[in-house]
Amino acid sequence: MKEIKAIIQPFMLERVCAVLREIEGLPGITVSQVMGWGKSRAADARDPVQEAGIAFARKTKMEIVVSASLAPRVVAAIESAARTGNVGDGKIFVYDVEEVVKIRTGERGEEAI
Ligand SMILES: Nc1ncnc2c1ncn2[C@@H]1O[C@H](COP(=O)(O)OP(=O)(O)OP(=O)(O)O)[C@@H](O)[C@H]1O
Ligand SMILES: [Mg+2]
After folding, report:
1. 43 alpha carbon to ligand 2 midpoint, in Å?
2. Atom of ligand 1 nearest to the CA of 90
3. Where residue 62 sits, what CATH number does that domain have?
4. Cα dist. 14→11, 22, 31, 75, 108 in Å?
5. What is the DSSP-derived secondary structure letter of residue 48?
6. What domain range includes position 21?
7. Which residue has a Cα nearest atom 13 of ligand 1?
8. How many distinct structural domains can be found in the chain?
9. C-beta of 36 in contact with ligand 1 (< 6 A)
10. Whether residue 37 has its Cβ less than 6 Å from ligand 1
11. How far apart are the CA of 78 and the centre of ligand 2, in A?
12. What is the pLDDT along the chain (113 residues), one digit of tens a residue?
């Protein structure tokens, strides 16, 4: 099992979600509005958030846990849908997931995703 964590431009969320909804078997997604900076330290941010005197760029974080076999498809879909070609397009991180527990049924592992 893999977790795909993508940090994308907030205005690309609709487009990225539209593509992800077309992937059969995609079990779920968690979306949060976050702030951060990359190499440019948010100097390129359109509408920066000031927190403790430091500028952060507004970003959207997507977290998706899938079977290892589905992960490359999800990564490719996000990569192509989220790209504008400009700085600040974001990044995709892929992690191994040790365990998943579905609270309602007590299922474990792939069954629970
Ligand atoms: N190494 C990292 N660790 C954690 N978060 C990161 C990392 N790199 C980028 N991010 C997050 O992704 C957001 C977008 O990063 P961004 O695309 O600007 O990266 P970059 O390396 O500066 O690339 P670019 O040159 O395209 O701007 C950042 O605001 C931050 O929230
Ligand atoms: Mg950057």
Report:
1. 8
2. 17
3. 3.30.70.120
4. 7, 13, 11, 16, 31
5. P
6. 2-112
7. 90
8. 1
9. yes
10. yes
11. 18
12. 999 999 999 999 999 999 999 999 999 999 999 999 999 899 888 899 999 999 999 999 999 999 999 999 999 999 999 999 999 999 999 999 999 999 999 999 999 99
